[in-house]
Amino acid sequence: MDRTIIGPDGKARCAWCGTVPEFLPYHDAEWGFPVGDDTRLFEKLCLESFQSGLSWRTILNKRDNFRAAFAGFDHRKVARFDAADRARLMADTGIVRNRQKIDATINNAQRMCELVETEGSLAAFVWRFEPPADTLPEPQSVTTSDASVALSKALKKRGWKFLGPTTVFAFMQAMGLINDHAEGCALRDKAAQARRDFTPPV
């Protein structure tokens, strides 16, 4: 299977980013580059939860609306959301109005408050699950891994919801815990260099 296409600049890209116009800038600027910021990591976990059963295009196009609705994904603020906030979110046509996913996001914000208390940061916690590079399968050949299973189990044990191994694997791809850019993609080496320059939080 050919996992690359030629981008508008004549360079190869992961094939998936050519399916819709908004994927190319996301692929080039964000996907696969290491992230150590707690707010961005929490946002991505939440958005991946909302994506479950939907397309990433749907979520990406609504991302700014999600940020506005969920207080910029400040976990401390979201953790204090109450019944009025839940009603507000269920009435917000700019986001995905799924009560279970909304409740899970508020729950996960509360669990993150607990995790930060015990582990120092979400970043320090999730980066412990980065798999060794030499254990990774061929890029874009799987949708889950031992590392995503382990991280999913660790989060579930702490009470987090809507974060199964496949959802967590997508999170790890996007946040640079694995470099899943296709072989030949112009961004693969850039993502690898970004990881070499990145020091995981402890």
Automatic annotation (TrEMBL):
SUPFAM superfamilies, per the entry: DNA-glycosylase
Keywords attached to this entry: Metal-binding, Zinc
Coiled coil feature spans: none
Protein's UniProt name: DNA-3-methyladenine glycosylase I
GO biological-process terms attached to the record: base-excision repair
Signal peptide as annotated in the record: none
Single Gene Ontology MF annotation: DNA-3-methyladenine glycosylase activity
Pfam families from the UniProt entry: Adenine_glyco (PF03352)
Residues binding Zn(2+): C14, H27, H181, C185
Record InterPro entries: Adenine_glyco, DNA-3mA_glycosylase, DNA_glycosylase
